[in-house]
Specification:
The structure holds 2 protein chains of 2 kinds. By secondary structure, chain A is an alpha/beta fold. Helix content of chain A is about 50%, strand content about 10%. Chain A is elongated, with a radius of gyration of 26 Å. The longest helix of chain B is centred in the last third of the chain and has 18 residues. A 4-stranded parallel beta sheet of chain B has the order 2-1-3-4, with helices on both faces. A 4-stranded parallel beta sheet of chain B has the order 6-5-7-8, sandwiched between helices. Chain B has 14 helices and 8 strands. By secondary structure, chain B is an alpha/beta fold. The chains are: A alpha/beta, B alpha/beta.
Chain lengths: ~450, ~260
């Protein structure tokens, strides 16, 4: 990740440009979210007038059913897919495979992990957890025509040959959406491999999937977000491909799908939208910079989170969609260092939202719309904080504890449950001989 | 890349006060009292009256960060009550200063104490920030030649915007050579309760940080935050390393007194 961080930093070398572009990007996203219901209606109308058929899904089950229905209507049994995190939320590949439909990932990283039966470990680089030897072995085992090689170019060429054939055979293409422009009914798709264009352009049917938060108001809103996205995600000034899809093949046109569908998924997003502070979560443009900069993510990898979205953004998103009590673990897998929020191109205050959600998990506040608010309450932890409060709001008790700790400094029992977690890799902490309170009093500092 | 410092203008626009409060913090109180006393002496040497209110305990960050708002508020309220005069409040910790400066106003949102919490927050300064930007101290080094490395706490860096202040103080010491850490903006893995709740991840982080410290070859590790010092120092000691973790206040005082 160090190389990627350096590439990104080089593209945001001018702090004033970074500040301004970031402020613009987050303002664009905040404005879109402030008018979300209206913009979604507008998007539906604009898409309809472009010939894109819009369907709404509240849950991932509904979204899967809709996709299946459309495919069935067309007798489609072979699908190629561009990269889409919404489809990962839906576990669409499994759903379709269970119904006898081949659903093949065409993004190289996604293709690799699909071959190995895995889920993405990063939202931009889904196979980042694999090295070339592992991929070479996988290809040698799973792709019949492939000869074993550890040459990266040759491995890429093997995947390309397989996928090229699949694009032409496919009955339908499924893709995600990076930005959906309400005013013009344009679906923007950012990619580097050309597989997104092939998936959305070659098969006769295209189904695009997006979360409700992906909408922006106007076409002018796209350039700042696009620029922030590619620079933050991969350290590129611009991606190799940028697709703007504005409807199916026209009567005079010789290529493109004959039908384009757009499935818009909620899956808990409107619940997040209903809270002013937490709705900042929905500003996310899925660049993955928070993961690349996170000292936790870079050490444990994406799969450890056991969630569709790993890393810092996943830590605030997943507890909101799956429940703050159920995913209490994610909320505390952070040192609150703030590297994520610092790198976020749309200024999502990730650490502040983590703290807010920690509070929601243990205390149900009046009017809270957070899923499972207050259900993560733990009596032992309540008792610990009650004790902490008693000891720290009373100077006399606090001073007494300090006195005792300094006098008994050699006798701190390192087997205490809390302390043993600390001393597993660290020397046992020893209090000083005298507290600052005592030293200051002895030195006759004013007030002491 | 060093970003533009986010130090708020109020750290430079104020005149020189006649008196300051010193907020020791619970970690300095118990583990680094000499650093606290050194901080007081550095301020006194500049001709300031330093007041150390006796009843002070903890800034309440642990409870606040864990979601125990009511408990945090009770403790924070007790602190605010001890600092009523309009003097600056100087804190030998970027993390505790960040809590009081950045989070107290939000903690008392909708509470009768909100205005007072805001006024309190506006008076909070981290020690190196106060020495550099407000007092513009001049230091003369009386110590031997030494190589040191510097670790900034994440909250000093990102909540208080402190980047250059400790460096410029160390740069005034003629016999001190600063060997920068690689990945110097990365967290050491302390994170308060994080180190206890996620011990394996915290251990992996502090192991890397300890490795970076050792790679500098410096026999002294300086920081402005007790939490980081306990964490990195604790790991270094467990490895049998002799690198000495020291609070920057103690180091500055010792070399310039």
């Amino acid at each position: 990740m160090d190389g990627l961080m350096a590439k990104r930093a080089a593209l945001f070398a001018d702090p004033v440009e970074w500040r301004d572009l970031r402020a613009l990007g987050s303002a664009v996203r905040a404005r879109a979210l402030a008018n979300l219901p209206e913009l979604l209606e507008k998007l539906e109308k604009s898409c309809a007038s472009n010939g894109i058929r819009v369907r709404w899904a509240e849950t991932t089950e509904e979204a899967n059913e809709i996709v299946h229905e459309i495919l069935k209507e067309h007798g489609a049994t072979r699908v190629v897919k561009g990269k889409s995190m919404v489809s990962e939320e839906m576990r669409l590949n499994d759903f379709l495979e269970d119904r006898g439909i081949e659903s093949l990932e065409s993004d190289l990283g996604e293709y690799i992990i699909q071959l190995d039966g895995e889920t993405p470990s990063h939202i931009i680089m889904p196979a980042i957890h694999k090295n070339k030897q592992q991929i070479a072995k996988l290809f040698g085992k799973k792709i019949r025509e492939a000869k074993y090689t550890e040459d990266v170019d040759e491995l890429t060429a093997i995947a390309r040959r397989v996928l090229r054939r699949k694009f032409f055979e496919a009955d339908a293409g499924i893709s995600g959406v990076n930005f959906a422009v309400a005013e013009t009914g344009t679906l923007c798709l950012v990619e580097n491999e050309g597989n997104g264009r092939m998936s959305t352009h070659v098969p006769p049917l295209h189904i695009a999937l997006m979360g409700i938060e992906k909408v922006v108001e106007r076409l002018e809103d796209v350039p700042p977000l696009y620029s922030l996205l590619t620079r933050s995600a991969t350290g590129q000034v611009i991606s190799t491909y940028f697709n703007m899809i504005t409807g199916p093949r026209g009567p005079e046109e010789k290529d493109g799908p004959t039908e384009v569908h757009l499935v818009i998924l909620d899956n808990g997003r409107s619940r997040i939208f209903s809270d002013v502070e937490l709705s900042a979560t929905l500003r996310c443009i899925r660049c993955g910079a928070c993961m690349n900069h996170c000292p936790v993510y870079t050490r444990i990898g994406g799969h450890a989170y056991e969630a569709v979205y790993p890393g810092p953004i996943g830590k605030i998103l997943t507890p909101q969609t799956e429940g703050v009590a159920r995913r209490h673990d994610l909320l505390h897998a952070s040192s609150l260092c703030g590297a994520c929020a610092e790198a976020c191109p749309v200024e999502i205050p990730i650490t502040e939202l983590l703290v807010r959600l920690r509070r929601e998990a243990t205390h149900k506040e009046p009017g809270s719309t957070v899923l499972q608010a207050g259900e993560g309450r733990d009596r032992l932890e309540d008792a610990a904080w009650a004790l902490w409060k008693a000891a720290h709001r009373s100077p006399a008790l606090y001073l007494l504890m300090g006195f005792a700790a300094t006098r008994l400094r050699r006798f701190l029992p390192s087997w205490l449950p809390v302390l043993s977690a600390w001393t597993s890799v660290r020397a046992t902490p020893r209090p000083a001989r005298r507290t600052l309170h005592e030293l200051a009093r002895k030195e006759k500092v004013d007030g002491a | 890349m060093i970003p533009v410092s986010m130090s708020s203008p109020d750290t430079t626009s104020r005149g020189r006060p006649e008196a300051v409060y010193f907020y020791g913090t619970c970690l300095v109180d118990l583990f680094f009292p000499e650093a606290g006393l050194s901080g007081i002496r550095l301020l006194q040497r500049e001709g300031l009256r330093v007041i150390f209110p006796k009843g002070q305990t903890c800034c309440a960050q642990p409870a606040f960060n864990c979601g125990y708002q009511e408990e945090a508020r009770a403790v924070a309220r007790a602190q605010i009550a001890l600092f009523r005069e309009p003097f600056p409040i100087v804190v030998p910790s970027g993390s505790c200063a960040g809590m009081m400066k950045r989070h107290y106003p939000a903690l008392f949102e909708g509470d009768p104490l909100h205005a007072e919490a805001e006024a309190f927050a506006a008076r909070v300064f981290e020690l190196t920030q106060f020495l550099t930007n407000v007092l513009k101290v001049k230091l003369t080094d009386h110590g031997e030649k030494v190589r040191v490395t510097w670790h900034s706490s994440c909250h000093a860096l990102r909540e208080m915007g402190i980047v250059m202040e400790p460096r410029s103080l160390l740069a005034q010491l003629a016999n001190v050579e600063l060997a920068p850490l690689s990945r110097e903006r990365e967290c050491c893995g302390f994170g308060g309760t994080f180190a206890i709740r996620e011990p394996e991840i915290s251990a992996a982080m502090v192991e890397d940080k300890a490795g970076d410290v050792l790679a500098t070859g410096a026999p002294v590790l300086l920081s402005g935050d007790g939490g980081c010092l306990l964490n990195i120092g604790g790991r270094l000691a467990a490895k049998g390393e002799t690198v000495r973790p020291r609070h920057v206040a103690e180091f500055l005082w010792e070399r310039t007194k």
